[in-house]
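Risk register update: the risk that structure generation would not scale has been downgraded. Supporting records follow, first protein first.
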Amino acid sequence: MDFVSMLFNEYRALVSLLLSLMVLVVVIMVWWDKVSFWWLNTWYAFPLIGKESRLAKDYETQVKIYDKDWLNTEVALCTDFAAHYEKVNKDEELFSKSQDYLGKVTENGRNNLHILGWILIAALVFVEAMGFSYVLSGFTIPGASEKLQQQGAVGIAFIISVLLVGLTHFTGHELHANSLIKKAKVWWKNAKNRDKATPELAPNTRINLDKTFEDDDEPQYKQVINRISTNAEVKPRYFITTITAIAILVIAVLATYVRGQVLEKMHIDEVNIQQNSGLYQEQDPYAEAPPAFLVEESKSADAKTDTDIWEREQKGGWGTFIFLAFLFILLQIFGILIGFKTGFAGKHSKDARKEIGNFKSEREFKTHYSRLKQQVARVAQKRLTNLQQRMNQKAETNCQDPKVLEVLEACGDRSFLTYMEDLGNAESRYDQSVRLREHQTLASHQAMKSNPVVATTNAVEVVEAPEAVEAMEARLKAELVAEANAKKAAETETPEQAEQRIRQELLAEIAQQKKPVETEEQMRDRLRKEMLGELSS
């Protein structure tokens, strides 16, 4: 503590500056979205060297975005503000998905550890570590001065506290994840006892925050397993817990041992001082020497007194050290419990809790983000309008190209919300195409189990051309009717006739097949390239 006081007294300005910078960094990190949006708006509005002034000079470069003629500078501005708009472009469906995800993984009542909690735990561990780090520094830096030993004690305490806070917190998270795995396995075993046909525990890796409703029909134990990370055997893991337990025991035992050695060293030093002082003690040459038996009795009484005092000091010291070790272990258990009660084991639970925040209902969630969307859109439109006015003013005096003037005159048809609407429509078309392909692939897999001929027909049709949702439904209905008719006909025809019919159908499909059957990943890659090509054209 003397070192800390000296540091504050002699380097008050430097310490104040460092603390202020740390507070500023924390504030920026907590409110980064607001700070970055404020800076973007300020940088665009900055006179002369601002981005709006620089973009206004380029009013001739045209690009085609979403089948509309835009200027490259307009697209650049809208793209910058679109990133902030997307962060607040949230509706009540996201709130419902987040609640559903947390509910299925049984973490709907949990939260992350607050920053104040982190500070409290770090302070407690640091104070506890300072108790034996000063003792350790005497052996770590032998022969060092008192000041250097104090500095070394602070460094050792900082290292120990950082390691222990991290280990105990991660241990709590591991134990929480293990509790979810145990809970799911108990539910699964109970279901298997009731029904021997219950499938094995295998997670569905497709489940995320956006697809949380896909496993509504699955049992609860499967919903939990789908949302947490497990090993192949779906068993609890205790790797971090084992490391933490070993670290806590080693530190507690070694710290107690070193404290005991220091206590004994202090006693030895004290005995040596007493003996040396006795050798050089001045005696009166004219004094009469005491009888020998009295000298022996006096030495025996002094030795017994010193032994009794040392025994009591030794017992008290070791009792104190054992109590401090117990307090140290108890403090680490407290840190593990905090880690067990806070944080999340679900893969996307942290994001879900962040989306829900302190909102109590979907309506409150939607109202809040609707207001934020309006603010971002209003600022972005203001910057876009100013940019378009500046480009019009420059073009009136410097541009003679009628096509450029025509595009500039139609700037009223190009707004920030129009850009975001076109962007949303393009993403919706892409998502719809992906879902359509996934549905067709799933239908092909299901048909493969019941009728290989129909499955081959589905695979060929998936490759040939994308279909609308209505056309797909009509086609599936027709296939189901044809399949039912085929089954009905198969009941009346002979085995030889059925074999001949299937051979003819396969030969006809092979003759009509124009492209090889694509896998699901190949379909996704091709669709993504097609959509990107349409957006860039």
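Supporting record for the second protein:
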Amino acid sequence: MMKIKNYTALLRRFYRNERGAYTVMMAIMSFALLGIVALTVDGSGMLLDKARFSQGIEQAGLALMAENNDFRNTNQRHEDVMRQTVSKQEMEGFTDTFSAQKYKRNQELVRGLVRHYYYPSTYRENNREINDKYYYQCDNLKGPNGEQLKSIACEISGEFERPSWLYLGKNNGLSFAKTTTINANKIYVQKNLDEIIPIDLMLVTDLSGSMNDDVNGRRYGTAKIDILRDVVASIAKELLEQNNTEEGKIISKYNRIGFTSFAFGAQQQSNSAKCYLPYEIKKNVRLDGYNYGRNNSISYTELLSYVGGSYQSYFYLTLAEHFDALVDYDKTIDLIDSFNGKDFNYLMTFNKNSWCLGSANTRINSTYIWAKKNESANLISRFNQVPATGATLSSSGLLIGANLLTNTNPDEEAQPSKLGANTQRIILVLSDGADQISNANSSLNITSNLINQGMCEKIKSKLDSLQDKTYLEQPTRIGFVAFGYGPSGTQKAAWEKCVGKYYYVANNKEELLESFRKIIGLVEEVGHSIYQPPSYYSN
């Protein structure tokens, strides 16, 4: 105990005797620590501000391109330009007031957007006190043969003076300067206005019996089939009849549209009386528990006899329960490599009936290719003839539609060597419910199994093999629209895997049309970022 007291007393005396020295040492260290904090805070702040400033510059470039004050064909003297007041000093370098007004509006547009990204009000209460500068150039692009294109590009850059948060004095090595210039590298944006990319669109549409209901599953509202027909008509007119010179549109006179309607199966092109189940089939399948006196296996012909029948031969064996097991998934996917646009001799084929597109419709083509320029009326008429009757099996339409999409355009003027561009191939699948046989207790998993084993990747790979490698490739796009129902479970997950960002849910005509337009790309080209300097016509 005595030793502890002695040590305590010793420490107290040391503290009393040396406390002045510690005060001096802490004062010196505090200054150094403050400098380190200043460097850390301002250094990280500069990096963050540079990132925000660069993001703002990119978004401002897109906005500059979208408004397109220098090259727009219509409404050049719009309100945002005409409200600009130009001083005598601001007129320097311009031959007329309107040009100076456009320049001032562009500067206002850029400055306003960029300042929202790097928050100059955190340094100055009034943003106008910030010293920032922006530089841009926009011009027409030069074509492969040196010709002037309608497409335009802009390059934009900028800088601003960033005040330090913790400025410790002039020439002080423990802090940054009072203000530091933050630069953004040049950002390049482009707006395509030339007719260069043709579209081959295959509509794979659900025409099962439930399409006769409204979006709430009732019989007295506007039927989903009627809404779909209106939307298809709008898309057909926009793709096939669109004025090619309208600003902001990328519409080719070589666009084509086809459709493949499915229920429980789909028609191939050349036989309007038949529905097909386009799968490779295991000819004899052993089913546990299945035994009716002969054996415990069933052939595809026996199972096919149930399709559309008024009763089932064996009540405990339903097509919904056992059809999944009959499909050879690996061989079905491998067959995609053989797609050539011609009809296949599939094992499981049957006359159109109550399960598939209606027995009275053997002369109506529920699959059709191709409607071309100025043929939208023909496409609309053909599509409107197809009734909605049957169960649902979406992959049957997808596989048959993908095969037909390998039919390339025979027009010599539509070839990549003539256009300098490949065709964009798009499959748009619409379904109003999960794959299912009417009144069955369980869903069919054929489509989900095929997608999860690589069907969509194989379809894209096959169609992408049709691209001319000499020109910019246009990867095949598959989109899916769930119409009037909320997808869930394995089928929802499978379709999301198949189509990625092109997955939409629509519950009315406006949403359905917007979904179609987004999948196809029928939205106004407002500009997109590019990663190398553009080749201007004026250069």
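The radius of gyration is 34 Å. On this basis the risk owner (M.S.) recommends closing the item.
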